[in-house]
Design a protein that fits this description.
Oligomer: single chain
Helix content: over 70%
Largest sheet: none
Number of helices: 4
Length: 117
């Protein structure tokens, strides 16, 4: 925490209050805990997301593409697709490795492009 205090005598009460608050905040201890999910829960979540994705695609195909609702559905489908890919990457270690390899490749290409300048 960063506390902003003033040396002015007119701000003494405010400064003391700020210092008391900073002191109390300093005493707070936090412990980070990673949430764990069972494989069955992950599979159920992925299946739910896949079925939602298919429902959205079916609805989009049946709807009038010029209506504002169709654009909203396309945006929703895109968001669900990104969330699904993100979840699959976290659950599936091979996809995680592929994502890391792709990132390393992008980093290598960036370095090569910068070296060429």
């Amino acid at each position: 925490m960063v506390a902003a205090i003033s040396p002015a005598l007119s701000e003494a009460e405010e400064t003391l209050g700020t210092l008391r608050f900073a002191s109390s905040v300093k005493k707070i201890k936090t412990v980070a805990v990673q949430n764990e999910q069972e494989a069955e829960e992950n599979d159920l979540l992925l299946q739910t997301m896949r079925s939602e994705m298919e429902e959205l695609r079916t609805t989009i195909r049946k709807s009038d593409l010029q209506r504002p609702e169709a654009q909203r559905l396309r945006n929703r489908a895109e968001a669900v697709e990104h969330a699904l890919m993100s979840m699959q990457t976290r659950v599936d270690s091979t996809m995680w490795d592929q994502a890391r390899a792709a990132q390393a490749d992008v980093e290598r290409q960036r370095r090569e492009a910068l070296a060429g300048l």
